[in-house]
Known about the structure:
Elements (H helix, E strand, L loop, with lengths): L1 E3 L9 E3 L4 E8 L2 E8 L3 H22 L7 H7 L6 E2 L2 H16 L9 H6 L12 H8 L8 E2 L3 E3 L13 H15 L5 E5 L2 E5 L8 E7 L2 E11 L3 E6 L4 E4 L2 E4 L2 E2 L4 E2 L6 E6 L2 H10 L5 H10 L4 E5 L4 E3 L13
Antiparallel strand pairs: 1-2, 2-3, 3-4, 4-8, 5-7, 6-7, 8-9, 9-12, 10-11, 12-17, 13-14, 15-16, 17-18, 18-19
Amino acid sequence: MGVLKRPDPSSPPLEVGQDGFYKVAFKAMGTACDVLYESTSTEHAERVRDEVVSWVRFFENRYSRYLPNSFISEVNAAAGIRPVSLLPEDERLLNLCRGLHFMTKGLFDPTTLPLSLIWDFRKKNPRIPDKAEISRALSLVGWSKVELGEKEVFLPAEGMGLDFGGFGKEYAVDRVLEIVRSMGVRNAMVNFGGDVALSGRPSDAAHWRIGVENPKKPGQPDFALSVTERGVATSGTYMRFFEMNGKRYSHLIDHRTGYPVSGKVFMATAIASTCLEAGALSTCSLIGEREEGLSLLENFFGAEGCLRTERALYWTRNFDKYLIHNES
């Protein structure tokens, strides 16, 4: 691909290939973001790029809990004090949270911030919270406690907190694909840190080819999928963890117990109608044992997926139709 000159130096570069596809790559939400899309002209491709980058900047500024002036920080600071007014984007996102909480039987829950704060994996020397701390944090967790109205949201207890870090990226992937398609693009792939949403097809195949990382060899593919008009997401416990007294503590917390997940499944990939659904399913299927995770994937309408343990890869009944088998 060639690189086009930028009239606005703040815009990420736009690469153009010989097949009518353009690519914009940038960093956001702590990860690498790539949008590959077909366009009939450079001018149109630039408008698409600018719209995408502008929306992603809005999203990150509004929903990052690490920014003191974000919507999420305002909601969390107002816990137990007052409700916070919603923009249409906020309503849409929170209503999706409500639906996913119901469809995953409570495994998907964006109110787990109190647990994340006591199990702080960002610290140089993390520690194991005592039982009293965990009990206190658990008392503040639970989507059913959130008071969600048409135009406002309220966390009724001081110390409660929302955290979109576990699924916000996947929601952003879906919204970017939606924006691209609304601008007349039929064929596109949005990839934010391995969470993907797909439309149409690439120039040289009937479906998009998506590689899934080998957890034992980071950076190398474990297997590949042939997918279109779907979302794909992979979650794992093998990258972020700490060890203490011979025991490994992963960054994924089971909010039913207050402790890191301890099952033998350490990676999950899900394919669903949207990247948000795929992301929620891949993460939630790591909570509990393998049978519970596979059941969640099997019983979610339109979804397929796989779980990896130390010994084997297990998948749902129709996941195989997406696998690209090596013929060698």
